[in-house]
Amino acid sequence: MSAPPPPPPKPAAPADVTEPTFSLPALPDPPFVPAQLHTKSREDLQYLLHSPPLLNALFHTTHPIAASTSSVLTSALTTNLNLTSNLQTLETQLDSLRDSTQQKLLETKQLERVWRDKEKEMYQALQPYSSVAQEQRLRQAAEESEKMAEDIVERFLAGDGEVEEFLKTYREVRKVQTLRKERGARWREGRVAGWR
């Protein structure tokens, strides 16, 4: 008769669970043959060999290590059941954490959208104070001063106003125009502190 089947492989234990060790007793040497089989015919032995339930029953009722093997297998089964219970608990915790993480991710994405909207509003509100807008206003102011100076000259040449008043007004306008042109030139050269 053949030896009993080997024990099932040990389950992989999680990192934080201590794995118990199982050891089956050694098989006797020479191999154990039940006394009942010594008187059986070859046909009976062939029939027994091809009938796993009968072999199993014969092993559990006659083999000397059957009881200790059963206790080892029962212990392994209990350990497997405990590990299964632990895994189910961990699975529940993992599902809860996964749901919580998903909710936090959705909240984060919503906050990112709100931030992008606020950032867009902020840049729109700051746009009139940007470097480009300031330079453009400075250029427009210089052009307006130049046009104003030309208008004053044209009105004076048309006979409108006195010389003294014309000179005073013209000098003030040209002074502002020159100052604005100088500021514009400094701006383009990058000589304005705090902006470039």
Backbone structural class: mainly alpha
The profile of the biggest β sheet is: none
**Alpha-carbon distance between the termini?**
95 Å
Mean pLDDT: 82
Helix content bin? 55-70%
Shape: rod-shaped
- Please state roughly what percent of the residues sit in beta strands, choosing from under 5%, 5-15%, 15-25%, 25-35%, 35-45% or over 45%: under 5%
| H-E order | HHHHH
Low-confidence stretches: none
What is the number of helices? 5
Give the total of beta strands.
0
Which value, in Å, is the CA radius of gyration? 50 Å
Protein name: Similar to Vacuolar protein sorting-associated protein 37A acc. no. Q8CHS8
Domain VPS37 C-terminal: 112-196
InterPro entries: ESCRT_assembly_dom, Helix_hairpin_bin_sf, Mod_r
Family: Belongs to the VPS37 family.
Structure description:
With 196 residues, this protein is mostly helical. Among the domains are: 57 residues, no CATH class; 59 residues. The protein is built from 5 helices and no strands. α4 packs antiparallel against α5. The longest helix has 61 residues. The two termini are 95 Å apart. 1% of the residues are buried. The mean pLDDT is 82.
Topology:
Blueprint: H1 42-49, H2 52-62, H3 66-126, H4 131-157, H5 163-189
Helix pairs in contact: 4-5
